[in-house]
Every structure is written in C-alpha cells, then in structure tokens.
Design goal:
It contains 6 helices and 13 strands. By secondary structure, it is α/β, with parallel strands linked by helices. Its cofactor is Mg(2+).
C-alpha cells in the first residue's frame, strides 16, 4: 500500500479522538473536520509543482516559488465532502471546485450518482477529491473514474478515516492515485460502516439523524 499515506500528527490524533466521541455536537464536529482538513492538505500538497517568480522585497529583487493554484481543482463528494471543502480552500483559495453527488444504495452498497458538475479539467491540473469516510471504496472509485472521464489525470484522494477494504478497492481500481488519511481503522461491519469509525459523517455534520 505505497499509495496510502497516514498523517498521524499528534494534533490530528487529538482532534480525531474528539470527533469520534458520540457526544461531540455538529458545531464542534464541523470545526474539527475543518482543522484536520487543513493539516491533511498541508501534507497532501507537499509535492505540488511550483513555478519560479520574481519578487521585489523592501530591500532588493529576488526569486521565489509559487504554486499554480488556479490549476488545482477540489472535488467534494456530496454531501459529507462539503465539510472538508473550506479547509482546502483556505490554503489554495484560487482553486476551482467540482461537485459530485453520490449516495450508497442501502441494499446493494453500490454507488448511485445523482449530480455531477466539473470545471474544465486538463492533464496538468491537480485534482483533490475529498470525503471524510473511505468505507467500501466504491463511491471513491466511482468519483475517480468520473474525474478521469472528464480529463483529470493527477488525482489525490483525501479522507478523514479509511477502512482497509476501501483502501484496497481504490488501489486496485486506480493504482495511480495517492490516498491521504488521518487514520486507517480496523474494518467494516455488516452494514459497511467503519469500525471503530465515528458514525455517519454527513449525519453528524448536519444533524440529519
């Protein structure tokens, strides 16, 4: 699993432990997800290409490097992925945003797409797909397939918690995609929820259950 990167920073561990707590309310849950996303983005963007620029300081002219953030596209998987969007945008505010709506059929556990809207994607764009939970991996694999279908090539997947089953599916289907997560949990239960996990991230973000 060379494509899997577990960002086990002490601050991430601390914040994630609070998020796992069943008594943590939606306000704090949203804030913590945003904070962890910031830390994950820092690591996931480590290898972004830069361009050389000329900068005039108060004393002289020098050369610096800048990220071409207009060639970065963030794709949150609706709806829980929206909870990670602002965290990424706070670091790359000029990035484009695409949206993909997918829900999991409760009987077959297969992804069902209900909305897709991407900005123009080219081979030199860096695409960051975000969703808090990588469970079965089928929705993530579907999202990656759609991004590639629309012209994307360089893809990073960023999630809060991953299950081994989901990681295996994504790596098998898309060995060219890098996965960044805050934790690799134990397994999926018989309803395809991550154990120990934190429950349904969308429900906890928006108090829909």
């Amino acid at each position: 699993m060379n494509n899997l990167h577990i960002v086990d920073h002490p601050l991430i561990k601390h914040k994630l432990s609070i998020m796992r707590n069943k008594d943590t309310g939606p306000k704090e849950f949203r804030e913590l997800l945003n904070e962890i996303t910031l830390l994950l983005t820092y690591e996931a963007s480590r290898n972004l290409p830069t361009i050389e620029v000329e900068v005039e300081t108060p004393l002289t002219i020098t050369k610096g490097e800048m990220v071409e953030d207009k060639k970065i596209t963030i794709v949150p998987i609706l709806r829980a992925g929206l909870g990670m969007l602002d965290g990424v945008l706070s670091l790359v505010p000029n990035a484009s945003v695409g949206f993909l709506g997918v829900f999991r059929d409760p009987d077959t556990l297969m992804p069902i797409e209900y909305y897709v809207k991407f900005p123009p994607l080219t081979e030199d764009h860096q695409i960051i797909i975000v969703d808090p939970m990588l469970a079965t991996g089928r929705s993530m694999s579907h999202a990656i397939k759609q991004v590639k279908k629309h012209g994307g090539k360089h893809i990073i997947l960023m999630c809060l918690i991953a299950a081994p089953e989901g990681v295996s599916v994504v790596i098998q289907d898309h060995p060219d995609v890098e996965i960044y997560t805050a934790a690799l949990d134990e397994k999926l239960n018989d309803k395809a929820y991550i154990i120990p996990g934190l429950g349904d991230a969308g429900d906890r973000l928006y108090r829909t259950k």
